[in-house]
Amino acid sequence: MNSPEWAVVAEGLRKQYGDTVALDGLDLKVPKGTVCGLLGPNGAGKTTAVRILSTLLRVSGGQAKVAGFDVVRQGADVRRNIGLVGQSAAVDEILSGRQNLVMFGRLYHLTPKASARRADELLAQFGLADTGSKPVSQYSGGMRRRLDLAAGLILAPAVLFLDEPTTGLDPRGRNEIWASVRALVATGTTVLLTTQYLEEADQLADRISVIDHGRVIASGTPDELKTAIGGDRIELVLHSAADLGRATQVVEHTVGEPVTTDEDGRRLSAPVRERVLALTEVVRALDDAGILAEDIGLRRPTLDEVFLRLTGDREHQKAA
Ligand code: ATP
Predict the structure, then answer these.
(1) Atom 28, ligand 1: which residue's CA is nearest?
(2) What is the pLDDT along the chain (320 residues), one digit of tens a residue?
(3) Are both 237 and 201 inside the same structural domain?
């Protein structure tokens, strides 16, 4: 629990609202200087977990440390070491980006001089130096969100809680935020990211914890999750639809799994266990059988598929 390499450690966190169990023994460990993605369907307990870890909410059971401090007994120390960037912007529309950051610096009790210096540093860090003197009302969505991020970083926190940082942004705005988060992590900040975009977790998170019904049901790197869930497939496109029958036999015989075929009669796909071995063997078997393939490759499941596989039950339970 006290190990210095962890920025966040939560053990058996429980939270109950009346009869509703929001957290049911949640465990989480986030190494320093990494991004941990917290994923889960609506109502899984993500917000509750973040609110407990940022000391905004009292825990019903279990324990947690953030930046080395106990969230219950050392709340003030935790708050001094964290930043919290939520979805709703706290910035003032009429003020310029720079004025907003200076104001936040003053709210955090920095001197006027230190506030100004920190504002300029942050504007430069988030690519807002040129637009820093414009009123926020003239900012694009992406610029605004970067300003939100900057405002959460006035005190250079060791741990940043980022709640759905790119909701509502277009792809360009999203890319801008991702670049900013990556730059931030490169300076050593630890980020706990909640997001409903799986691609965002795939892009940013070193490790992902999938939460459902108030507990972690799977965790690992995006790649580990994809591998653990399996679902790798070999896909091939035949040169001629006339070979479909024979190709199906050859592939089924080689990988030992049933083949599915596409409507146009030239595409086949089959699940594989040993990815690369299967690819080599299928290529060789097709070659031996004199069957020409135009395209052949392996496809990993997307994180969406992993997520659905892990949490899909919920929809069925609701429907039942
Ligand atoms: P979302 O993705 O929708 O934000 P979430 O994963 O953040 O969901 P939480 O907001 O943590 O989930 O909610 C977890 C559970 O606790 C849900 O069943 C929710 O209805 C319940 N809950 C959350 N806040 C309260 C509250 N103040 N009073 C009663 N129940 C609550």
Answers:
(1) 17
(2) 555 689 999 999 999 999 999 999 999 999 999 999 999 888 899 999 999 999 999 999 999 999 999 999 999 999 999 988 876 657 888 999 999 999 989 988 899 999 999 999 999 988 899 999 999 999 988 888 889 888 888 888 999 999 888 887 788 888 888 888 898 899 899 999 998 788 889 889 999 999 999 999 999 998 888 877 767 889 999 999 999 999 999 999 999 988 888 878 899 988 888 878 889 999 999 999 999 999 999 888 777 777 777 887 554 444 43
(3) no
Within this chain, do residues 209 and 240 fall inside the same structural domain, yes or no?
no
**Residue 42 near ligand 1, beta carbon < 6 Å:** yes
**Ligand 1 neighbourhood includes 173 CB (under 6 angstroms):** no
Same domain? 291 vs 178: no
Same structural domain, 222 and 243? no
Question: Do residues 160 and 217 both lie within one domain?
Answer: yes
**Which structural domain, as residue segments, surrounds residue 288?**
232-299
Q: Is 208 in the pocket of ligand 1 (CB under 6 A)?
A: no
Residue nearest to atom 17 of ligand 1 (CA): 43
The CATH number of residue 189's host domain is: 3.40.50.300
Q: Decide whether any atom of ligand 1 lies within 6 Å of the 17 Cβ.
A: yes
Q: DSSP for the chain?
A: ---TTEEEEEEEEEEEETTEEEEEEEEEEEETT-EEEEE--TTSSHHHHHHHHTTSS--SEEEEEETTEETTTTHHHHHHTEEEE-SS--S-SSSBHHHHHHHHHHHTT--HHHHHHHHHHHHHHTT-TTTTTSBGGG--HHHHHHHHHHHTTTT--SEEEEESTTTT--HHHHHHHHHHHHHHHHTT-EEEEE-S-HHHHHHH-SEEEEEETTEEEEEE-HHHHHHHH---EEEEEES-GGGHHHHHHHHHHHH-S--EE-TTSSEEEEE-SSHHHHHHHHHHHHHHTT--EEEEEEEPPPHHHHHHHHHTHHHHHHH-
